[in-house]
Design a protein that fits this description.
The protein has about 475 residues and is α+β, with helices and mostly antiparallel strands. About 65% of the residues lie in helices and about 10% in strands.
Length: about 475
């Protein structure tokens, strides 16, 4: 009996030695993995455009050295690169891609073997036999019909869709920078014209006051002049506010504080009117073959196909196969264990139907996105064509007003009447310049809208900026 007790005790110790370390190590891993991560402190106000790491990032993308640093003038490309360097939207897109890549690793893993142990105590053992029965087995799950392959394919397609989100986000950042630059250019030019308008109105008001004092003008006419002067000053004040708002909008697009733009010079290198021979069919082809959201929708469709194949394969159960050992009241017994779920009550009809519906939804989303892109191109192309006609008309009107002003300046003789006519001509020329500026801004916005519809530059010489798939600020950068 003592020998049997020792053998039984030996098997119990072996059982405990196998189970206890696994349980305790699992608890330790859970405690370490669930430790809260501290949020990084970002000093937003410390962000500047003279950051040395920003210089390295811009130079690596432009493939040329920038000297001196910071540059004397910031063009649209350098400002866009600054936005790509700082913007947190790209950080979020990169984090989603990292999560999707981790999902590929999760889908690639093979199921762990299953250790099954059971202890039984016999209350009335036969004389000379141990009362203990220890039964253990090690089962290896075997996935059938390419389930792992389909699972990996689904995760890879979703990972590609997440990567394309980085490209789409980078284009959105670029689009916001361009829109802010157009607004800033409009505000600066408009403020200058409104300032000139106010100066002309002040000069005219002084003339009216002199003529009022000499009795040539009535008080009613003088009041009208003062009202016009007040309106001009009000318009100038509104233009100055628009300029301040435009600077703030650009700083927000760059994701830097507004103080970072105080001491820099910006060159507004907008493209000219050379994109007059745009082909609608060519724009559609470029958009449907190259837009990141189109490619992402296609990747999601492929993922839905893999998910359906996975659910179809799940109709056939996996097998669990492995060796087993039983210590039965002192007798050692070895064997082979196998288990197989029986698809009696369910044949995986529900998940298969859900996957089919998701696949049809992916097809519908892709088709709807294609129609939306075509509609965006048509709308943007129509707006661009109309804007180009408008700027031609506004330019012609401005030319006529300038010729009239030149004629009046050459023909004006000393006298107050001629000065009034000259003032009116200058006012009309200034109003025509404002109309020309409005038309120019419409052209630039329509062109930007058309580029957003295609999501690539219209000019072949202007290559799209690459989307940084790795955080360029690295650890510790602002």
């Amino acid at each position: 009996m003592q020998i049997l007790y020792l053998r039984e005790n030996r098997w119990m110790k072996l059982f405990l030695l196998l189970i206890i370390p696994i349980v305790t190590s699992g608890c330790a891993m859970i405690r370490s993995d669930t430790a809260q991560l501290s949020l990084p402190a970002v000093d937003f106000e410390a962000r500047t455009l003279d950051n040395p790491r920003l210089k390295e990032f811009i130079e690596s993308n432009l493939q040329r050295e920038i000297a001196p640093w910071p540059p004397a003038s910031w063009d649209r490309t350098m400002l866009t690169l600054a936005a790509l360097y700082y913007h947190p939207d790209l950080d979020a897109a990169r984090a989603r891609w990292a999560e999707a890549k981790a999902a590929v690793a999760t889908a690639s893993r093979r199921p762990n073997p299953i250790a099954d142990s059971r202890y039984q105590y016999v209350s009335n053992p036969e004389p000379g036999k141990s009362p203990s029965i220890i039964d253990s087995s090690l089962l290896f799950p075997i996935e059938a019909l390419g389930k792992r392959r389909n699972r990996i394919a689904q995760a890879e397609h979703l990972s590609e869709a997440a990567r394309l989100t980085i490209e789409r986000t980078a284009w959105q950042v670029r689009s916001r920078v361009l829109s802010s630059l157009i607004s800033l250019h409009e505000a600066m030019q408009s403020e200058a014209l409104l300032r000139r308008q106010a100066a002309l109105q002040e000069e005219n008001d002084a003339l009216i006051e002199r003529r009022l004092a000499s009795g040539e003008f009535s008080p009613l006419e003088a009041t009208k002049g003062r009202i016009s002067l007040g309106e001009s000053r009000l318009a100038l004040s509104q233009g100055q506010k628009q300029l301040a708002d435009a600077r703030t909008q650009l700083a927000s697009a760059l994701c830097v504080p507004a103080t970072a733009l105080e001491d820099i010079t910006i060159s507004f290198d907008f493209p000219g009117n050379q994109a007059s021979d745009l082909c609608r069919r060519d724009l559609q082809r470029r958009a449907l073959r190259g837009r990141p959201d189109i490619m992402a929708a296609l990747a999601e469709y492929e993922a839905s196909q893999s998910a359906l194949a996975l659910e179809l394969a799940a109709r056939f159960p996996d097998i669990q196969l492995g060796p087993g050992f039983e210590w039965d009241q002192g007798s050692d017994k070895w064997g082979i264990s196998a288990s197989l779920p029986l698809p009696v009550f369910d044949w995986n009809q529900g998940p298969v139907a859900e996957s089919r519906a998701r696949l049809e939804e992916a097809v519908a989303r892709f088709t709807a996105l294609q129609a939306q892109v075509i509609g965006e191109i048509d709308q943007a192309l129509s707006a661009y064509t109309a804007a180009r006609r408008e700027i031609e008309a506004a330019g012609g009107l401005l030319g006529e007003q300038e010729r009239q002003l030149t004629f009046l300046q050459a023909m004006t003789r000393p006298g107050e009447v001629q000065r009034v006519a000259l003032f009116n001509a200058r006012q009309q020329r200034n109003a025509a310049a404002l109309s020309r500026l409005t038309a120019y801004v419409k052209v630039q916005r329509a062109r930007a809208q058309l580029e957003d519809a295609v999501q690539e530059p219209l000019t072949p010489s202007e290559a799209p900026l690459p989307a940084p798939e790795v955080n360029p600020r690295r650890l510790g950068g602002h």
